[in-house]
Specification:
Layout lengths: L7 H12 L15 H6 L4 H15 L8 H10 L3 H23 L4 H15 L7 H4 L10 H17 L5 H21 L11 H17 L3 H20 L11 H21 L10 H13 E3 L2 E2 L13 H10 L22 H9 L14 E5 L4 E8 L2 E8 L2 E2 L11 E5 L38 E2 L7 E5 L1 E6 L4 E7 L10 E11 L5 E10 L6 E7 L2 E6 L2 E5 L4 E5 L5 E11 L5 E11 L8 E7 L1
Antiparallel strand pairs: 1-2, 3-4, 4-5, 5-7, 6-9, 8-14, 10-11, 11-12, 12-13, 13-20, 14-19, 15-16, 16-17, 17-20, 18-19
InterPro entries: Chondroitin_lyas (IPR008929)
Protein name: Heparinase
């Protein structure tokens, strides 16, 4: 579909025609961004204050150094954070002081800080992270953060470049050309050019956007945009027709965000002729955000998604203005300025210029339920006088982007209580986390998910370890999902069949019924039902475990006398390298003799 946008020749002619009308491409009607209005608007006051407070804090600190010793630590230890913390602190300086300079152009302290961080970034040997180099040549490789950095510099040049010394402006353009444009046109193709996940959109979208902003040779610009369009086709191929982002809403913010930033600049640069948003699949992807949340800022965080994901208000409001079906999200879950630890410039900028403070929006997401057939996700949120409740379950396979071994896994939560059935989300990103030891981590391995151990065996990794959907049904009263999961376990598990059935009854206090039906080939094998929870569990009596929340409690009911019950609190390192813990409940079946056993669990609020 993107291939029909236009030829390289037509792109070049559109660029030439549009440039005769003026230089600004941030709005289709060519109007300028009114930074003075934003700075003085009471509707933007909270956002402006967040940036000002961060700027005041940073002014009391030096710009951190990036040394060769820090850079080399990833290769010797596998640790990413030691280098990445100062790297992203530098991007924090860049984003903060560029926005403050736009909001308060007369403040010399902000302008000086911006020029100092720009000069520091110009001297970095590479804009890539060491974790992404892996033997690549410095000066020829392009990763996510090199592409983002170049895009940010071009946006700053476009909005405030005439306020900088000529030597600094020239250096910024030269560095972008040397680190992005020349490698892109000369040294590729890069692995991300044909990727079907966020790398494709972020890298190609950033380079294409940077080129639209600063490249003055229309033939060269058209060549880069044509390449970027080809990569965007690959990016969209990673989505099914249901628009689900298997990497979760955080990566939706990331990858689809950069797709939209590029699409908007291209639309404006071609006078509306090249439109990457007018496609049914893109519309469905835009709807994924509001379908993915269970309550507030708590999504169905399968894969390496985080348990709490705030919305990018600029991106969200832009999509809601473009697509009638897309909701303006609740303002209460707007991502604060400092929330992105990578401090990406593009979304931070658009949180200001695309935010629609007067748009109609509700205090929380509207109730709803969806079955996403390509992802094989069931997502349901319901509200009553008792509170807000959310349930999600997944089929899919164990070879998904940012894969976890989690087919048949589920999430159950309410309001702000710790999740009663939880997904741990992403662990700390290290070399080992993305290497052979990936599934030894509880965040990614089957042992950290609410799926059974069968014959002592956990789920296998791989595309063939997949669910077969037997039923998927949503309605006002109840939702149902039934999966055949036999293929997810090895031959040694001795299975002919393993059917898992969820029934979510949407009462004032909802009930989740979970039924596992087994058929073994040669007699019964031991089964251990596993529940992963962040709520404190307490065994009340045989057959009842109370999961204690802050507002709500859930009673986990099971057949008395049938299981040996064990409850363990387990620590792990989260995405940010901080220690957290969760509870793992094991219900180990005792003395089963039937080769077709049925096990039923009930979660009652």
């Amino acid at each position: 579909m993107i291939s029909s946008i236009g030829t390289r020749e037509s792109l070049q002619s559109w660029f030439e025609a549009r440039r005769l009308a003026g230089s600004s491409i941030y709005f289709l009607d060519r109007r300028a961004i009114d930074w003075q209005r934003i700075a003085n608007s009471p509707l933007h006051a909270d956002m402006v204050k967040e940036v000002e407070e961060e700027g005041d804090r940073l002014l009391s600190e030096p710009i951190p150094e990036l040394t060769q010793e820090l850079y080399a630590l990833f290769e010797t230890t596998g640790n990413r954070l030691t280098y990445e913390v100062p790297y992203f602190t530098r991007r924090r300086w860049l984003t903060t002081f560029s926005l403050l300079h736009l909001l308060h152009p007369g403040n010399s302290e902000y302008k000086s800080a911006l020029e100092r961080i720009l000069e520091a970034i110009m001297t970095e040997p590479t804009w890539c992270l060491p974790a992404h180099m892996k033997g690549q040549t410095i000066g020829r490789h392009i990763d996510l953060f090199a592409a983002e950095t170049g895009f940010a510099l071009c946006e700053i040049l476009s909005m405030a470049g005439d306020r900088f010394p000529q030597a600094l402006r020239d250096d910024m353009l030269e560095q972008v050309n040397r680190r992005l444009f020349i490698p892109y046109l000369t040294y590729g193709p890069y692995h991300w050019e044909t990727a079907d996940h966020n790398w494709a959109a972020v890298c190609a979208g950033s380079i294409g956007s940077a080129a639209l902003l600063v490249e003055r040779n229309n033939a060269r610009l058209a060549e880069m945009i044509a390449k970027a369009l080809g990569t965007m086709e690959h990016y969209l191929s990673g989505f099914g027709a249901d628009g689900a982002c298997l990497e979760g809403p955080g990566y939706w913010n990331y990858g689809f965000g950069y797709y939209v930033y590029f699409a908007d600049l291209l639309l404006n640069a071609t006078g509306g002729k090249a439109n990457l948003l007018e496609h049914d699949k893109v519309r469905e992807i835009a709807l994924f955000q509001q379908r993915s949340y269970l309550s507030g800022n708590r999504p169905a965080n399968f894969s390496d998604a985080m348990p709490n994901v705030s919305v990018h208000i600029g991106l969200s409001d832009y999509l809601a203005a473009y697509y009638e079906e897309v909701e303006h999200p609740p303002l209460a879950i707007r991502a604060a300025f400092t929330e992105d630890h990578c401090m990406r410039y593009a979304p931070a900028l658009r949180n200001f210029i695309w935010f629609q403070p007067e748009a109609a929006r509700e205090a929380d997401w509207k109730p709803g339920c969806w079955y996403l057939p390509d992802a094989e996700w069931l997502i349901s949120r319901t509200r009553s006088s008792e509170g807000s409740f959310g349930f999600a379950a997944k089929g899919g396979n164990n070879n998904e982007p940012h894969n976890h071994n989690d087919v048949g896994h589920f999430i159950l939560l309410a309001d702000h209580d710790p999740a009663f059935a939880a997904d741990l989300g992403s662990g700390e990103y290290t070399a080992q986390y993305f290497g052979e030891g990936r599934y030894g981590y509880d965040c990614t391995g089957a042992q950290g998910h609410s799926i059974p151990i069968i014959g002592g065996r956990l789920q296998q990794t791989g595309i063939d370890s997949a669910a077969k959907v037997l039923e998927a049904h949503t309605s006002r009263e109840e939702d149902r999902l039934e999966l055949e999961l036999e293929a997810c376990y090895s031959e040694a598990a001795g299975l002919e069949s393993f059917k898992r059935r969820f029934v979510w009854r949407k009462l004032a206090r909802p009930i989740l019924e979970l039924t596992d039906v087994f058929r073994f080939k040669d007699g019964s094998l031991p089964v251990t039902e596993t529940i992963v929870t962040r709520s404190r569990p307490a065994l009340i009596e045989d057959g009842h475990i109370r999961l204690e929340g802050d507002r709500h409690n859930v009673t986990l009911g099971f057949e008395p006398g049938r299981y040996d019950v064990s409850i363990e609190e387990i620590g792990y390192r989260n995405h940010y390298g901080k220690e957290e813990s969760y509870y793992r409940i094991h219900l180990a079946v005792k003395g089963e003799t039937s080769n077709e056993p049925v096990y039923k669990l009930q979660f009652q609020f």
